[in-house]
Amino acid sequence: MTLKAVLFDFNGVIINDEPIHQQLIEELLLEENLRPSPQDYRDYCLGKSDRVSLTDLLNSRGRFVEESYLTRIITRKAEAYRRQLEEMEQLPIYPGVEDLIFKIRVAQLPMGVVSGALRSEVELVLDRAKLLQYFPVIIAGDDIKVSKPEPDGYLLAVERLNQYYPDLNARASNCLAIEDTPVGIEAAKRAGMQVVGVANTYPFHMLQRQANWTVDYLHELELDRVQQVYAGLSSKVS
Fold this sequence. Notes:
Layout: E1 5-8, H1 18-31, H2 40-44, H3 50-60, H4 67-86, H5 97-106, E2 111-114, H6 119-128, E3 137-139, H7 152-164, E4 175-179, H8 182-191, E5 194-198, H9 204-208, E6 213-215, H10 223-237
Parallel strand pairs: 1-2, 1-4, 2-3, 4-5, 5-6
Helix pairs in contact: 1-4, 4-6
């Protein structure tokens, strides 16, 4: 078996924007006359789509909102997110992202993004960071009805990769996911992928118990060694 594609999570892997999202969530709660808790974001939002996280968070406070109202809240948050990014002279892209993308391109491996973030947010960031051209496949929170830890986003990404690259013939088992949260790692593993955990959001030791590889920083990922592991897996199978 050979490694055929690499799929990136977005928030917490490509861009360090979790503090922005946490601030916006807290502002939304205040607008709903609810008091934010420091633990809210970690408990209900990390690694999940806005729709799922806001639904769960509001439900936990006894608020059960209609889909139309939830959509308006999400739209309001997305507009505030865009405004904050527009005010930044430089986006908080994680160090090592561009180096890793270069390594993957040299290895001629297709890349994609699988995220709970809205497509407009993903494309905004990637375009401004001049990385959009390297991700022909983007599965965003508005492409699927469920959120991580469900595997649907990763499975759809494999399907779209094969459509975009007709000769790829990729399966989930020969795609590598890069994640920063336990729910993201679980989603990729449930899809049948091996996973790199990057300790941007959770401690190294916590991710190490769940991921196949764990790194403190993306530049530490040795892609050639990962490819050797995939090659070794095929020899074991044969």
